[in-house]
Amino acid sequence: MSNFPDAPDDYEDLAARHVSLRRVAALFVPYQRRIAGVVALMALASAVGLAGPFLLRAIIDQALPQQNLGLLMWLVAGMIGAAVIAAAIGAWQVVLTSRIGQAILHDLRVRLYSHLQSLSLRFFTGTRTGEVQSRIAGDIAGLQSLVTETASELGKALSAVVMTAIAILLLDWRLAMFVLLIVPGTVLISNRVARMREALTFEQQARAADMSAAVQETLSASGIILARTMGRGPHLAQRFARISGDLAHLEVKSHTAGEGQWALIGLALAILPALTLLAGGLLMQTDSPATIGTLVAMIALQEQLLWPFEQLLETGRDMRKTRALFARVFEYLDKPVEITERADPVTVPRTMMRGDVQLDHVSFAYAEAHGPAVRDISLTIPSGSHVAIVGPTGSGKTTLGYLLARLYDVQSGAIRFDGVDLRDLSFDTLSQMLGVVSQEPYLLHTSVAENLRFARPGATDDELIAAAKVAQIHDHIATLPDGYDTLVGEGGYRFSGGEKQRLALARTILRDPPILLLDEATSALDTRTERAMSLALDAMSKGRTTITIAHRLSTIRHADLIVVMQAGQIVEQGSHDDLLAKAGLYASLLRGA
């Protein structure tokens, strides 16, 4: 937990690096005209509201002593009219503020989501999904009160305080100076309490992210299966209770930290009217006494001042808390984009794509690793050929697949498709040239048809069926009650591992890329289905470059070239028969299989 009153060093460093008033204000810039209109409405509402105390003074000092009923009626009508106008302006301003606030939040959510989409795989392999969800949903939702209610209340309170302070000075500058003496002390106390609660808010959101991650990990289909088969349900419930308890404790501290100091502000504001009456009584003894009407109007203006002033202090305190939320959101927005598209990328028409692949002295190392995962790989794959990449676990096969798909960028050397460096190709061209089916296929929680059309939104039903037939999954889909409209379930859990792989393959087939990368794409298939799909793939691969990353060597015996990797390097390459005759690593792997 934090040591108060100072925020933790790590949070202060994070906030200093990512949050500034200029950066927060920039979120509001696209809506500055509408915001100016709202500010004008606030000022108008405050000005109209100030008419009341002056009309009250006129009633006490003129209409009542003179028993002037007509003047009294006009003054009362003026007070009522001012109240009606102020209420109507206030309602209009709330509608406008809400629309502006939601537009700002929408922009921030979309901006953060789009930025996260552009980050490399490195970020997502090192970050919990629940943490990402917490920042997009929880932290930005926490800012809602700032950009809708708090900003509106701040504007109203600030304009009311300024207008009322001017009115107080106009009534009697001596009483005004006495009233305004409380301002510096209350501001200092408010700022001290705000610093306390800001640090707690950061801890709250971090713990809320822990809870989001716990829910996402343990209440998914995979999490439930793991918990029940391991008998760890009670343990997970206790763990969740501990996280929830910590969060509840932080919630209480966040709302009560510095409450004793804050009570001093309330006390000062509560006794101010009594002290003002005393000051007015003392002024009665001077040569220029205040009138009874002035004193009553002053008390009325104080009442009109104290609520917005207290609101102003509370808003300032709450805005300090939102700095913690901005720090968490901006921290993600400032994550560097490692995989970028050139300003003038190369685009290749689909009809011009051949499928030549060249790896030229490619090397790559993960940031947390002690040595390179791939070291000085050179390989030429002619268009239309079938190349298999094999090797023991940890040999760099999957990393090479990541580099081919540009999920990471090579650190030295180059990978070229049709003679063009991947880093020079447009993202759209790269996605059209290369189709990837991984060993862990991911399906969206939607229908089979929508999952397939994710590759080609405009695909016809006939094209879906044709792709599914090649992937040997159409007959199974046809037996389902809703056919291609069947929901696949969270993570595709309505389908077996082999069925998910075949659906993922059908999705890639539908895209019809000239280069096909299969990363253990048939690992979950039974032998019979694998054999049938291998024949289908052979037919599909004609005229198409196919790169297969495989552990099960039975699937790649007929490849044109088999590349054997070990410790990030190519140690053997050749046909199945050639490698078997060498009696090297490939032959050893084949015997082990």
Describe the structure.
The strands form two sheets. Strands 6-7-8-3-9-10 form a six-stranded mixed sheet, with helices on both faces. Strands 2-1-4-5 form a four-stranded antiparallel sheet, with helices on one face. Helix 20 links the parallel strand 7 and strand 8. With about 600 residues, it is of the alpha/beta class. Helix content is about 65%, strand content about 10%. The longest helix is centred in the first third of the chain and has 50 residues, at about 70-120. This is ABC transporter ATP-binding protein.
CATH topology of the largest domain: ABC transporter transmembrane region fold
Q: Write down the overall geometry.
A: elongated
Quaternary assembly: single chain
Largest sheet: 6 strands, mixed
The CATH homologous superfamily of the largest domain is termed ABC transporter type 1, transmembrane domain
- The gyration radius over C-alpha positions equals 35 Å
Low-confidence regions: 1-8
- How many β-strand runs? 10
Domain ABC transmembrane type-1: 36-321
Transmembrane segments: 35-59, 71-92, 160-189, 262-284
Protein name: ABC transporter ATP-binding protein
Main location: membrane
